[in-house]
Amino acid sequence: MPVDLSPIDKAKYVAAKRACDYVESGMKLGLGTGSTAAWLVRCLGELVRDEGLKIKGVPTSTRTAQLARDVGIEVISLDEARWLDLTIDGADEYDGALNLIKGGGGALLQEKIVATASDQMIVIADASKKVETLGAFPLPIEVIPFGWQTSKALVEEALVGMDVMGATTSLRMNGQAPFITDEGNHILDLHLNRIGNARQLSLVLNQIPGIVENGLFIDICDIVITGYGDGRVEVHDINKGEVDETRYDFLDDGNIFADLGD
Ligand SMILES: O=C(CO)[C@H](O)[C@H](O)COP(=O)(O)O
């Protein structure tokens, strides 16, 4: 590992490192997308190389697939795997019930399919992702290109019906052109500030023709592992209803060891 990590990268790294404790040889794993998930993939690659960990990974994006192959993880498709033991992914926001906003990296559709096909989902995140109420992060919605402006108008109409104040919707761009997802779709970012009823909003959005999926992950995530820049890691397990803490110390070579005692 590099020695001079920024505090935010240290936070992501220790969260990823802690998540590896849940990975066992023989597992089929969903591999998330984004900068935090990339740390996980690198950590898993080290375990494959140095400790002979045997895993098969189903990536949630072409970016993650490339990285996984580069670090020596065997990559298979979801159709080959059918069902996964565990998915580990990042998130843009999580709340106290471990509901999430995802899709900041534009991979929400594959991420939701893969997470839902898993016995367990673990989110790894730095502490900036923790919120009281979801919605400060714009909610990504995947929309098919055909008639997307009509779908956008239908989304805005549905929001009026839900009494959401001051919502705006923007088409995500990649330079001068619309952003294109791995599935060939566009992303609408829904600026709401606050999502009062995330479950209802998710259901309403997915009823609109042309909307493929939205970035609200409700009742999908089981565990959130939050990393801090000083090496602390909190594990919040929704099923156990408890939070436990580990602390990692950074060594001179940039690697870490876990201090499991007080
Ligand atoms: O949902 C995602 C990609 O679609 C990412 O997991 C999310 O955007 C978090 O990314 P990062 O770890 O880079 O902050």
UniProtKB/TrEMBL annotation:
Keywords in alphabetical order: Isomerase
Annotated binding of substrate, by residue: T33, G34, S35, T36, D89, G90, A91, D92, K102, G103, G104, G105, K129
GO CC terms in record: cytosol
Keyword Isomerase among UniProt keywords: yes
Pfam family membership, one: Rib_5-P_isom_A
Organism domain of life: Bacteria
Enzyme Commission number, as recorded: 5.3.1.6
One Gene Ontology term of the molecular function aspect: ribose-5-phosphate isomerase activity
Annotated Gene3D superfamilies: 3.30.70.260, 3.40.50.1360
Catalytic residue list: E111 (proton acceptor)
CDD domains tied to this protein: RPI_A
InterPro entries in the record: NagB/RpiA_transferase-like, Ribose5P_isomerase_typA_subgr, Ribose5P_isomerase_type_A
Subunit structure: Homodimer.
PANTHER family linked: RIBOSE-5-PHOSPHATE ISOMERASE
Stated name of the protein: Ribose-5-phosphate isomerase A
Annotated organism of origin: Loktanella salsilacus
